[in-house]
Design brief:
Layout lengths: L34 H19 L9 H11 L7 H6 L4 E2 L2 E2 L4 E2 L2 E2 L3 H40 L1
Antiparallel strand pairs: 1-2, 3-4
Length: 150
């Protein structure tokens, strides 16, 4: 007679809590990748995950979830950090935040966030160019002062 060992744990306690490998949450933007290409690649991954892995039993195709996935996969540092901080409260306790609805429509859809990402990238690059231009001018001023002193 074989003795079975039973535990007091629920069966739900044994479920895995890790993120699936095909999950769109695992995607990250490559260095210098075009924003449109990244959003397209992310949308393909979301659709694949929804239809093939979860067999159509999810809310991944809703505009709210797509926006949340896009913001979640952005890097913490760099040009998109301000965008990520701005929409940090997009989802509260697993539910879309009501403040982002206007007349029953979700405001920060993926296309809107894509344009915001382009603007953030443009502003970030513009600020980098300004910083690079200021440094040589300071060096030239120091050199000209050194020539005048000697």
């Amino acid at each position: 007679m074989v003795r079975e060992r039973k535990t007091a744990r629920k069966s739900s306690a044994r479920k895995s809590t890790y993120v699936l490998l095909d999950s769109p949450y695992m995607i990250c933007m490559k260095y210098n990748e075009d924003i449109r290409h990244y959003v397209y690649r992310l949308n393909l991954c979301v659709e694949h995950f929804h239809y093939n892995v979860l067999e159509g039993q999810s809310d991944y195709l809703t505009p709210e979830r797509r926006s949340q996935i896009l913001l979640h996969t952005l890097r913490v540092r760099g040009p998109y950090s301000q965008l990520k901080k701005k929409y940090a409260d997009l989802y509260i306790e697993g539910e879309p935040n009501d403040k982002y609805y206007y007349n029953g429509r979700w405001i920060p859809i993926v296309e809107y966030l894509e344009k915001a990402m382009m603007e953030a990238k443009r502003e970030f690059d513009y600020n980098l160019d300004d910083d690079e231009e200021e440094e040589p001018l300071e060096n030239e001023a120091r050199e000209s002062q050194g020539e005048n002193d000697g």
